[in-house]
Design a protein that fits this description.
The protein has 4 helices and 14 strands. Strands 3, 6, 7, 8, 9, 10, 11, 12, 13 and 14 form a 10-stranded antiparallel β-sheet that branches. Strands 1-2 form a two-stranded antiparallel sheet. Bound molecules: zinc ion (ZN). Zinc ion binds next to loops.
C-alpha cells in the first residue's frame, strides 16, 4: 500500500494504483528476467562445451576414422573380386565354352536388401552407402560362386574336349624366332602372312603332339616339306612342318606329349626349325595362345615378346 501527500487537504491519502498498471510492471520485470536468462544460456553455450559434448565429439571422430578403414577394406575386397570375375570371364568361362554372364554388377534398383535412407543426415547416409556397397559385394560374390558351380559341372563333361585342345609347346623349351602375322619370307624376300610360329632348334630335336588326336592323311603342301597334320576333333587341327623324319603314320592315334617326329629343314626352309600351326574350324590362328599348359608366366612372356617382332620367318 502506498501513500501520497495531498497539498490541498494537507494530509496523507491512500494512493490507488490501478490493476492494469500493476500488471504492466509485473510483465516488464518478467520480460527482463527471461531476456537475461536467454542471453546467459546463449553465451554459455557458445563459449563452453560440456563434458558430455566433448565425449560425443571424441566418439564421433573415432567412428569416422573406423568408417574410413572399413571403406578401404571394402575397396580392397571389391578389387579382389573384380580380378576373380575378370579371370572367370576371360579364361575359365571361355575355355569351358560357358555362356557369358550378362550382368555382374547388380544396380541399386534391383537390390532390396537395404532400406531407403535418402532423407538421412550425412553420417547416417555414409553408413547407409557402406551397407549398400556390402550388399552389392554380397550379390557379386553369389554370382561368382554360381559361376564356379556351373563351370564345375561343365568341366565334368569337358575332360575329353580338354585333352583335344592344343595346350602345350610342340618342342621342349621353345624358342620362338618368328611369330604369327606379317613377316618377311626368307626365300621370296617379301612381306607376307606367316600362318604359324617358327621354333628354332637343332636338327633331330624331338617334336611332340600338342593334344590327343589322329594323324591325318591330308597333304600339307610341298612348301611344308615333311609335315604332319593331326586332327584333334572339336574343330582343332595342328600342323608340324619342315621335319627331318616322321615318327607316326597316317591314321595313328596319338596322345598329347607323344613323340611324332624330328626337327629338320625340309621344304621351303632356310635352316632347321619347326613351323607349327594351329587350325581352328579351318582358320589358322596364332599358336602362341595355345602354349598355356606347360610354360611358366615368365617363359610365356618371353615367347609373346619374341613372337611379336616383325622379322624374317624361317618359312
Ligand atoms: Zn614358319
Amino acid at each position: 500500500m502506498k501513500y501520497k501527500f495531498d497539498h490541498k487537504s494537507l494530509s496523507f491519502e491512500k494512493e490507488v494504483v490501478s490493476l492494469k498498471k500493476r500488471l504492466k510492471k509485473l510483465i516488464g520485470h518478467l520480460l527482463t528476467g527471461i531476456s537475461f536468462a536467454v542471453l546467459t544460456i546463449l553465451i554459455y553455450n557458445n563459449m563452453f562445451t560440456s563434458p558430455k559434448e566433448k565425449r560425443l565429439k571424441r566418439e564421433l571422430n573415432a567412428t569416422e576414422i573406423e568408417m574410413e578403414k572399413i571403406n578401404r577394406r571394402v575397396n580392397l575386397l571389391s578389387n579382389v573380386l573384380r580380378g576373380m570375375e575378370q579371370k572367370d570371364d576371360d579364361l575359365y568361362r571361355v575355355l569351358l565354352e560357358a555362356e557369358p554372364i550378362e550382368d555382374r554388377n547388380p544396380s541399386l534398383v534391383k537390390l532390396s536388401l537395404s532400406e531407403d535412407y535418402s532423407d538421412m543426415q550425412s553420417f547416417s547416409k555414409e553408413l547407409n552407402d557402406l551397407s549398400r556397397r556390402l550388399d552389392i559385394l554380397t550379390v557379386r560374390s553369389q554370382i561368382q560362386l554360381q559361376s564356379y558351380q556351373e563351370l564345375w559341372k561343365l568341366s565334368q563333361n569337358k575332360e575329353e574336349i580338354f585333352s583335344c585342345i592344343p595346350a602345350i609347346s610342340p618342342v621342349k623349351n621353345p624358342k620362338v624366332v618368328s611369330g604369327f602375322g606379317m613377316r618377311y619370307h626368307p626365300i621370296y624376300k617379301i612381306l607376307r602372312r606367316h600362318t604359324g610360329v617358327d621354333l628354332i632348334g637343332r636338327r633331330g630335336t624331338p617334336i611332340y603332339a600338342t593334344a590327343d588326336g589322329v594323324v591325318s592323311r591330308e597333304n600339307a603342301g610341298s612348301g611344308y616339306g615333311v609335315a604332319i597334320i593331326i586332327n584333334h576333333g572339336y574343330g582343332y587341327k595342328t600342323l608340324y612342318a619342315h621335319l627331318s623324319k616322321k615318327a607316326v603314320r597316317p591314321g595313328q592315334k596319338v596322345k598329347r606329349g607323344e613323340l611324332i617326329g624330328y626337327m629338320g629343314s625340309s621344304g621351303l626352309s632356310v635352316s632347321p626349325h619347326l613351323h607349327y600351326e594351329v587350325i581352328k574350324n579351318g582358320v589358322k590362328v596364332n599358336p602362341i595362345h595355345y602354349f598355356f599348359a606347360d610354360v611358366t608366366p615368365e617363359e610365356y612372356n618371353k615367347i609373346l615378346e619374341d613372337a611379336s617382332k616383325v622379322n624374317q620367318a624361317l618359312s
